[in-house]
């Protein structure tokens, strides 16, 4: 990043968040999503031995937290997972960094004590899992959470002998019919100035902001694509679970969920499109819930708009979960395109060497404007 860049990269101790260094990072890109982990990549310049000696004890994969600030606002936070020093043919040194959002830490945590919940709110179960891993020695990285509930009660048992991974449990808990969305949001506390890792839970989804942000092309939208992927669409669905018997001598057959059929789509003339999913580790009593969620997602047309916009006052990572109104008028849409979409992903490219500061937004259909589709 150039010296005049509004961005700063902070390296901190993961457990205590103690600041270790503030450093330049070249060729940096950051992204964050709802429903999947975000990432950071960049390169640290190493101009001399003094800088190398400073960096070696600081950039520790799996131990160092990385924060990205823009004008003092937190734009990204996560865990440093890969550190790659490189020496070129001229003897110049650089260190390539790869980091993942703080939720990737939960890919490296397991349930070590059997957990049982009977008719417990699903958001409370999610918080219980976070609390359990943070109570273990060395496991507290400062993830905070609130008290909001969904009103949806679940019964779950997570056996320590299965060594279940916490990230997978949270995703499985959320990805059912009438489930929820979750992420670990990063921000700066406006009163104390400290950096905050917040478990963000949304039922039935994470929504932000009452007003739409209007994005137009021509205008702040530099480019866009609107792929319609029929390969992911299905109107008949059945999921498979684990084996249906415990007798090793008997023929092993997988459990099957209910068969879900979109009768309205077939009556409207759609060809039959079959779909399935596998849940080998899911308990039989919740297999139908997962199958129904997959069926509901597959019934919808898989149009995933992606737009590139210039960053400005209203376009920040805080757009995640917000609804934008996309208005297009161009060769492909001579009569105009006007629809509302929720932002479910954002990838930021800071300015560097004459490159403008832009954001790629991944959008999800939310509701329609004057376009009847």
- Assign the CATH class of the largest domain: Mainly Beta
SSE pattern: EEEEHEEEEHEEHEEEEEEEHEHEEEE
Number of domains: 4
Name the overall outline.
globular
Total E-strand runs: 22
**What separation lies between the terminal Cα atoms?**
43 Å
Q: Which blocks of ≥5 consecutive residues have pLDDT under 50?
A: 367-373
The CATH homologous superfamily of the largest domain is named Baseplate protein-like domain - beta roll fold
Estimated structural class:
mainly beta
The major sheet is characterized as: 13 strands, mixed
Beta-strand residue fraction: 35-45%
CATH architecture of the largest domain: Roll
Q: What percentage of residues falls in helices of 4 or more residues? A: 10-25%
Helix count equals 5
Mean pLDDT: 90
Radius of gyration (Å): 23 Å
Which features characterize this protein?
373 residues, mainly beta, Phage tail proteins - horseshoe like beta roll fold, Phage tail protein beta-alpha-beta fold, Elongation Factor Tu (Ef-tu), domain 3, 13-stranded mixed sheet, four-stranded mixed sheet, 43% strand, globular, disordered C terminus
What does this structure look like?
The protein has 373 residues and is mostly beta strands. The chain has four domains: 7-102, Phage tail proteins - horseshoe like beta roll fold (Roll), CATH 2.30.300.10; 109-202, Phage tail protein beta-alpha-beta fold (3-Layer(bab) Sandwich); 208-227 and 303-368, Beta Barrel (Elongation Factor Tu (Ef-tu), domain 3), CATH 2.40.30; 230-299. A hairpin with an 8-residue loop joins strand 21 and strand 22. Helix content is 13%, strand content 43%. Residues 367-373 have low confidence and may be disordered. Helix 2 (122-135) packs antiparallel against helix 3 (166-174). It is globular, with a radius of gyration of 23 Å. The chain has helices spanning 49-55, 122-135, 166-174, 263-267, 287-299, and strands at residues 7-13, 19-23, 26-33, 39-46, 64-70, 73-87, 93-101, 115-121, 143-144, 153-158, 181-188, 195-202, 208-217, 221-225, 236-243, 254-256, 260-261, 274-278, 306-310, 322-328, 337-349, 358-368. Strands 1, 2, 3, 4, 5, 6, 7, 13, 14, 19, 20, 21 and 22 form a 13-stranded mixed β-sheet that branches.
């Amino acid at each position: 990043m150039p010296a005049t860049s509004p961005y700063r990269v902070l390296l901190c101790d993961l457990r205590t968040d103690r600041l270790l260094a503030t450093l330049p990072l070249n060729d940096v890109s950051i992204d964050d999503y709802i429903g999947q982990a975000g990432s950071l990549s960049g390169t640290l310049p190493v101009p001399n031995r003094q800088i190398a000696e400073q960096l070696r004890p600081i950039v520790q994969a799996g131990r160092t937290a990385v924060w990205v600030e823009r004008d003092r606002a937190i734009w990204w936070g996560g865990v440093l997972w890969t550190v790659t020093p490189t020496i070129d043919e001229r003897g110049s040194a650089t260190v390539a960094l790869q980091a993942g959002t703080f939720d990737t830490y939960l890919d490296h945590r397991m349930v070590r004590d059997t957990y049982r919940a009977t008719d417990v709110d699903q958001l409370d179960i999610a918080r219980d899992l976070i609390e359990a891993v943070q109570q273990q020695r060395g496991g507290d990285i400062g993830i905070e959470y609130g008290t909001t509930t969904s009103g949806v009660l679940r019964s779950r048992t997570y056996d320590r002998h299965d060594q279940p991974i916490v990230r997978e449990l949270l995703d499985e808990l959320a990805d059912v019919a009438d489930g929820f969305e979750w992420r670990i949001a990063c921000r700066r506390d406006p009163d104390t100035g400290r950096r905050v890792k917040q478990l963000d839970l949304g039922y039935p989804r994470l929504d932000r902001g009452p007003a739409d942000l209007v994005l137009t092309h021509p205008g702040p939208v530099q480019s866009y694509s609107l792929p319609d992927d029929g390969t992911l669409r299905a109107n008949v669905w059945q999921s498979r679970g684990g084996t249906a018997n415990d007798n090793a001598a008997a023929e092993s057959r997988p459990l099957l969920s209910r068969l879900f059929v979109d009768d309205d789509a077939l009556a409207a003339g759609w060809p039959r499109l079959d779909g399935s999913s596998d849940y080998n580790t899911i308990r039989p009593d919740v297999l139908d819930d997962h199958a129904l969620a997959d069926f509901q997602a597959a019934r919808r047309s898989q149009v995933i708009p992606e737009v590139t916009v210039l960053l400005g006052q209203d376009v920040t990572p805080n757009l995640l979960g917000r609804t934008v109104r996309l208005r297009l008028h161009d060769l492909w849409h001579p009569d105009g395109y006007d629809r509302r979409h929720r932002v479910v992903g954002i990838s930021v490219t800071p300015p560097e060497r004459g490159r403008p500061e832009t954001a790629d937004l991944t959008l999800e259909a939310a509701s329609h404007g004057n376009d009847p589709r």
